[in-house]
Amino acid sequence: MSDSAPEQFGFTEEDLRTQPTVFAADLFKGQTIVVTGAGSGLGRAIAALFARLGANLAISGRNLEKLEAAADFLRGFGGEVLAEPFTIRDVDQVTGFVDAVHEKYGALDVLVNNAGGQFPQAAIDFTPKGWNAVIDTNLNGTWWMMQAAARRWMEAGAPGSIVNIVADVWRGMPGMAHTAAARAGVIYLSKSVAVEWAPHSLRVNCVAPGCCETTGFGNYPPEGASTYYQANPMLRAGDEWDVAEAVAYVSAPSGKFITGEVLNVDGGQQLWGDPWATGRPEYFQLKPYAPPGDDVPG
Asked: For the residues of 146-208, what is the DSSP string, one character each?
């Protein structure tokens, strides 16, 4: 295993076209899937798998150029793709997007909340603007999408499924405390409404990637990304396809009796890992054990 992370991260379009999958090619035929943050990275991989499995898509993102490129790529699988740029922080834009999905397709079957944003930084250095931006996007924006979709499902008396992409927060996320707070909020929000919304035939689950290689890896300093390959007992990183197939599993009939759950895709990271997005400080570097001398109390 190398001590440093590779320079290129994430899958190419050709990778997404050819990556083997365990799922049947028509699994989501005739269904409409919303994937937020689908312009690149995990969102694009998730959308690509659904497209390969026969779904029609509605995708969103804030970068118009990336979103249009992703939409053109996804249409190559034969389904329809609605692509709208907007920010999930804006309730009116969220509602307008969900309405547009229903207007185009007449229904919505699965909502995948993948959009989010964060940056590696020591918590002591967070500014109010930086903190609020992460919380507003990752927690509040996710909630506005959930609520808007659920309201339409309840009004129509239709079933639905929500999958929220969160993070492996069980041991904390030093160097990413703001997103740990937001993602933990999404997890327990999801568990709460999974119970409230069960009478309406709505399922709500989370998929929690551990250290998986995505285009987002490039946002971390090399000394931070390198710790991700030491952060689980498998001593390697996962990839975007691992996450995409987990999302498909809980969205498909295979997940019909699963709600309020968190599917960890992390190689056992929650049991053992110690990732540091900012790089592991000297204080926490592993050192040879030196037993105390006889003159040391205790």
From this structure: HHHHHHHHHHHT--EEEEEE----TT--TT-HHHHHHHHHHHHHHHHHHHHTGGGTEEEEEEE
